Amino acid sequence: MPSFHTKTIEQILDPVAQQVSVLVVLHEASEDGSAMPDLSGQISAVNAAVQNLVKVGRDTTNSSKDAVLKQDMPPALVKVEAASNGLLEASVMLRDDPYSMPGRKTLIDGARGILGGTAQLLLVFDQAEVRKILRRCQGVLDYICVAEVMGDLVTFVKNLTPGMTGMANMVSARAKELTFQVHRELLEKHLDSVKNTVPLLVSAIKITVTTISQGGQGLAEAKENRNYVIRKMSYDIREIMRVLQLTTYDEDDWAMDDLTVLKKAQDNITNQMARATEWLTDPNAAPGGIGESALRQILADAKKVADRVNEPYAGRIKQAVEDLTELTDKLADLRANGQGNTPEALQLSHAINAKLNALQKLVDDAVQDAVKNGTGKPANTPTGKMDQAQAWLANPSVNDKGVGRKAIEGLVAEGRRVAQNLSGPEKRELEQLCNDVDSLYKQLDALIRKGQGNSPEAQAIRQQLAKKLQQLQQRIEKALANQVVDSFMDPTGPLAQLDRAAKAPADAPNRQQTYESKAHIFLKHSKQMTDTAHAVAEAGSCPDKKIVGERNATANEVAEMTPQVVNAGKILLMLPENAAATENFDILSGQYRSKVEILTGLVDEATDPLEFIKASEESIKKDSEGVANAIRQKNPQNIIVGGGNIATKANRIVTVANKEADNSEDPEFVNNVQDATRQLGKSTTDTVVAAKAISMNPADGTAQNNWFKSNGQMIPY
To answer: What's the pTM?
Structure first.
């Protein structure tokens, strides 16, 4: 039975498909020489339904203003009418001669023609409806881009609201109509993102207008906020428009294979070209606007293409991106200094425009080559790379386009990337494993190139290499668990510190220096979280591309939002009594907090809970040793810091353990976990109370005994 992408088409075509199936079954049953039954009644009913459908189609075509529908509908009507007439002809032929072979063939061709023609006709109808939604989406997309020059907030919101509401209603209704769950989820996801971004857009425009009225203080940061919000909303609307046009499941966005990523990047480049060209050809266009953002997004997407296509395209695209980036930087600097109309700037913009068109052609050729010849890329996940590596080791003489070799190289590279964030013996251990694997791989590769791939020496190396690869994968998983413990110990703590610094009273001493210090900590911590999240997604053991893609996408959102939170805080620092500045910061920081909580959950799901708890235990032991030394040295500051770290890590253990209990259907396991987390929670509270008492009076022997007792119950030595 065929698959239809909307419920309406499915409801109309499913009975037709069943009728066709019945006719096919009857035809096959009579191939043994038996007579065909009289089908004139059934065929007359089908013909009447087709004629009604054709009438509706013609009426719609005549009344429609959709040029595409007017062009596509007539051929579909002709096709379905011809098929219906064929059925009637077959009915007459078989009534006169129930054994007629031409009659049977005409019957089957007509039945299938009706199914195909009706499907085509309904698809023309459906695509016309989709174009209505696309026009509404494009209208909203065009309007939000004028926010760059909008000075009247009331007028902007008044004009935006009906268009946004209409688009949301149409997209929501369309999502409910779709039969493919993945497409529904994508529409709902991006529509929710648009809705959540609307308050941020209004706030960003308000704070831009406010900073202008306040003499320009904080204007640069406000513009960055505004442009970020416009880029984010524009991306979501373009994704809605892309998904609206999908009609088959294998085009879904979650299948994060190379070809899907390449086509998506190619489409993004095409969509951004007009806006980038408009910016280039307008010598008075300001730098940092929507047009320049579009140009830089094209370069980012082109780089994404270069990372996935074959040579020589990859190298050519990378070089073109580097050249264009340098030229664009020069042009932006000239325009920022009011020199956009100078001969140098005009020549630059002309050169960039020509090179940009050449880059688009190069990207198109590279994607076409990848579609035709494949990419010869290793799997996206370590598990997939491991399978490819082991398959090559089992039979290195097979030509796999170098996938097995690249998989091993990818695992070694991943191990070295993870090792960069480690220190001490753990770092040296992982690096040594990477070196061992790399050395064995090169020895084996050299033997294969000499034609000795099946020699006893090569077989022995293959066995050693297979074992070392397994050890490397296990070591990477352990290292990732340690990274998660460190990076996500207190996911929103630095944000809370930034919040306090941004909202410090105007007369507070060292406000600027304090904010800059907290902003540095916040930026560093956020990068650490997103880097770890990417590492977990790319080096973790999850084989589900959808989940891996979601982790990477959420980490990217957090990374993009991070500097905007800092910008919003700077504006608030400059305008401490301004309600718009406070509102802008609160909205941005609130959305950041929500995204970080989602990211934390996604990372926790990707991390083996037992490895996480083991790594947390080791980390708490180190903190406990530090606090014990601080108690002996009577250092209150280190006692407070270390005690806080212990409590935060213990609370994270409780959260992860409770999630495991929530997902379990084993009552005994659930009870045991709940008992253990309650005991850990009590020990943690007792430890914190004792640490506070010691920090206030380092000589308090009773408090010291209480700390060592409660800490010993938490982490037995």
So the answer is: 0.69
